[in-house]
Amino acid sequence: MSLAIHAILRFFRPAPNADPLAQPSPAQQRITRRSSGFTEFARRIVGQEPLNILDLGPTSPANIEYLTNLGHKVYNEDVLHAGTDPALVTPGEGDKPTIDVARFLSSSLQYEPEKFDAVLCWDVADYMPEVLVKPMVDRIHRATKPGGSVLAFFHTKDAGPDAPYYRYHIGGPETLSLQAMWKQGPAKTRVPLFRLQRIFQNRHVENLFRDYGSLKFFLARDNVREIIVLR
């Protein structure tokens, strides 16, 4: 019996500063690597009754296909594009630009409490404006069921400010395919579509998820730490 495909795409606004270089050509290669964090995440959702799963990255047909083939319902919301929308920038104290957190939350992550069994957060927190990170994590907490799992990646100090921004595609229960996303920089150079904003140390990550039940770190390749957080 074939499985019905269920997917809800909540991001319909165009990407800010859209650029043709951000659209990868068919010839552009992807990096495939094993992910211990995703392996643990997959173990928790395989063989389960139909689950509600939230993917916070750019829409990926590979992710939708993999998760729906397991019988799950997929919700997708590109919170990084939403959180870097220039319309959120307002004058702050002394005319210093600031981010309108309330406006972001009024149109993003609008889900009823305890809706999701699992959340794919990827490395969104590292690229989001800092003022939005904790409100985003709190919204995810509210929307996740008790016992639900969250997969998140955080860069290490060795990543550097020019670390590529990747779009994550599920390649299988143990592997991810990483697709670098670019835009045009000065003198027509290529720069990451989003810039790494900060490095969260382990204690900062633990503080972000302090309202959750447990947290497990996996030291990954490519200067990234992977974590599984249980609600």
Question: Care to describe what's here?
Answer:
This protein has 7 helices and 13 strands. It is of the alpha/beta class and 231 residues long. The chain has a single domain, classed as Vaccinia Virus protein VP39 (Rossmann fold, 3-Layer(aba) Sandwich), CATH 3.40.50.150. A hairpin with a 5-residue loop joins strand 10 and strand 11. The protein is globular, with a radius of gyration of 17 Å. The protein starts with 6 loop residues before the first strand and ends with a strand. Mean pLDDT is 87; it is low at 1-22.
Blueprint of the fold:
Elements: E1 7-9, E2 31-34, H1 36-45, E3 52-55, H2 61-69, E4 73-76, H3 79-83, E5 89-91, E6 97-99, H4 101-107, E7 116-122, H5 124-127, H6 130-143, E8 144-155, E9 165-170, E10 175-184, E11 190-192, H7 202-208, E12 214-219, E13 224-230
Parallel strand pairs: 1-4, 3-4, 3-7, 7-8
Antiparallel strand pairs: 2-10, 5-6, 8-13, 9-10, 10-11, 12-13
What characteristics describe this protein?
231 residues; alpha/beta; Rossmann fold; seven-stranded mixed beta sheet; four-stranded antiparallel beta sheet; 7 helices; 13 strands; 24% helix; globular; disordered N terminus
